[in-house]
Design goal:
The protein is of the alpha+beta class. It has ten helices and 14 strands. 17% of the residues are buried.
């Protein structure tokens, strides 16, 4: 989940919470005001009744003034447009506390044929305070909205920067981030651009160097191979020819690894079956004695992958089995969504990951046989395909399996 999405979700949660709190606060304030006025009206009603029952209008007016009450003259209108909150009746009198449609509270008293409708004038201040509180909550909500938009505007460049970094990581080394300001995000963008430029220059220089080395090596290797063919057959010719082949293969694998590491090489995915893959891998080996390899395709399943690079991976596994296996033939078994290369030999001393490092050898001695770049290239190719390389040892045989998971 992106930061922008999280901010938006948090905004809606906060906004909903603010609206809920606002409504609950308004209800609570209204109920509190209603309770206070109701208690006040009930408390003063006895005293006002005394003056009303004695028809002592002068003292009644003085008392109303003392209590900050005023008499409402338009009784008929207010009685029609008000609801009764509280009511108490006797045979001679009655008390009613009313709520007018404008949210004002009134006290209506009757005694025989006399009646009195009064209103507490101090409630005006109470309702003003309530309105002020509502305005403050509204302002708080507006500030929350504005703050959310400001935060979104501030962090939006992170989305573009993330996209630039992603494209850069996929191999587009010319990708740069746009200038987004002078704040911390702007500094981050500038730092990324400077870093990207340095990395691009380093990678370009390394790629150029490796291409030049590969080109320079290929020419003398080819000439050496041609010269070797003109030499009379002997054990030294075979040793020299084998050494040249290994140097040629290592040079090619170095260039392949560099292309994969730098994302320079785009894999071409297409669907093909395992028989096609095995055939192409064997053709890359140039095996003179076909009896050294036994192919058993139990399930000729298909995969969507890069045929060339996957055949290189399989070829390297077969080549290792031919080099380091103690007995022939080497078995290639295709079954259950996997390709297994089986060979007789000594069990690996260390975990498979150790041998997947570049130029890894069985021990620290330079005189021992090593796996060179073979397994390293296999592992990198399979990682690009999201396939797995597994190893296990059973009954004197080494098993290297490519698990496609399809």
């Amino acid at each position: 989940m992106s930061i922008i999405t999280k901010v938006i979700i948090l905004f809606f949660i906060s906004f909903s919470l603010m609206i809920f709190v606002s409504n609950e606060t308004n209800k609570l304030t209204q109920n509190t005001i209603e309770t206070l006025l109701k208690d006040k009206y009930i408390q003063v009603s006895d005293e006002l009744f005394t003056y009303l029952s004695n028809n002592d209008m002068n003292n009644l007016k003085n008392k109303l003034k003392e209590l900050d009450f005023k008499e409402v003259l338009d009784k008929e209108h207010y009685l029609k447009t008000s609801s009764i909150l509280y009511q108490y009746k006797t045979e001679l009198s009655s008390i009613e506390i009313l709520q007018h449609e404008d949210n004002r509270y009134l006290l209506y008293m009757t005694y025989l044929d006399d009646d009195l409708l009064v209103m507490d004038q101090s409630q005006g201040k109470i309702f003003k305070d309530k309105e002020f509180l509502n305005y403050m909550i509204l302002v708080d909500i507006l500030i929350l909205i504005i703050l959310s938009f400001v935060i979104l505007k501030m962090i939006y460049p992170l989305k573009e920067l993330s996209g630039s970094i992603k494209k850069f990581g996929e191999g587009d080394y010319s990708m740069r981030s746009k200038k987004v300001g002078s704040d911390e995000i702007g500094e981050l963008s500038d730092t990324f651009n400077a870093m990207a430029m340095n990395i691009e220059n380093l990678i370009t220089s390394r790629q150029r160097l490796l291409r030049d080395i590969g080109h320079e090596l290929k020419t003398p290797i080819s000439k050496s191979k041609l010269a070797v063919e003109m030499v009379e057959e002997s054990k030294y010719k075979k040793i020299l020819k084998k050494a040249l082949d290994e140097i040629d293969q290592m040079t090619s694998e170095l260039l392949d690894i560099e292309k994969l590491n730098s994302n320079q090489q785009r894999l071409i995915f297409k669907s093909f079956d395992m028989e096609t893959l095995v055939g192409l891998a064997l053709s890359k080996l140039f095996v003179e004695d076909e009896s050294k390899i036994d192919v058993d395709i139990e399930s000729n399943f298909s995969v969507n992958a890069d045929l060339n690079y996957l055949s290189i991976a399989l070829k390297n596994l077969i080549d290792n089995a031919l080099k380091y296996g103690t007995e022939k033939p080497v078995h290639i078994i295709v079954k259950e969504k996997s390709i297994v290369v089986k060979s007789k030999g000594k069990q690996l001393d260390k975990p498979l990951e150790f041998y997947c490092e570049d130029f890894t050898q069985g021990d620290n001695s330079r005189n021992q046989k090593g796996y060179g770049l073979g397994l390293s290239l296999v592992k990198r190719i399979l990682d690009k395909h999201k396939f797995q390389l597994l190893y296990y040892y059973e009954k004197g045989f080494n098993f290297f399996a490519i698990e496609t998971g399809v």
